[in-house]
# Entry
Amino acid sequence: MSPRLDALGLAGDLPGVLLDAKRLAASAPGVHGRRRAGQGEAFWQYRDHRNEDGARLVDWRRSARGDRYYVREREREAAQTAWFWIDDGPGFAWTSNPARPTKLYRAQTLALALSILLSRGGERIGLMGHPPRAGSRAVDRLTLDLALGHRSGTAPTNATVVCFSDFYGALDEWRDRLRSYGAVGARGALVMIADPAEEDFPFRGRTLFRAPGRGAEVLIGRAENAHDAYRVRLEEHRRAVHALGAELGFPAVLHRTDHSAAPTLAMLIALVSERFA
# Structure
């Protein structure tokens, strides 16, 4: 059985996620992948000759067409790798409205869409704890890995790691994780996925709040009275996550599940492309 069929058999919502990711990637700006000057055989571009190049690097055939000297640059062949870490906590697989995707669904969609673009550019992709892959089947294999879930493992040296979470966990836990990535030269991005109910706190009157997967409950008699305090605490936490990411080389991007995924994907393309440059 092919990796893609294996993934579809195990993955629950992932067939729909993969389809949404392909649609999202089709409408996104492309990435150039490894198309950078370097040691390789494939021609990339001509550029003007510089004094430090010397006569050895002059492309005399191209230079003979005009009055300037040109150097023939080859494409760098060493592919780079983007790794993904996606929150698997019960609170992440939640939505306040069944008509909208869960935070997990949107995170998987963004990760696969970015993977499609990177794979087309010749780069490797992988889920943390699984082998990275390249080529025409790389996205199918990543889909299977998403179905299987994370495995234990440290960040590879000098990796690019994109983390998807709501980041509601303790800040110290994230500091430890990002520092462990940074200790081996890893950098990347933090994608903060939020449900609109978590952002706007639209609740009024007597409201029972349940923590997904934990069984913990809190009953508030007049929920609207908690709105301002909730917003202040959320903003303080968000600023702390942004500051931590900026300090350790993981800029944070906020995405709401009731908004289009396209702008967030464009930002991730820019951040990863800058890292790969």
Observations:
- Strands lie at 43-48, 70-74, 81-86, 124-127, 160-165, 187-194, 207-210, 217-220, 252-256.
- Residues 227-248 form the longest helix (22 residues).
- The longest strand covers residues 187-194.
- Residues 1-10, 33-44 have pLDDT under 50 and may be disordered.
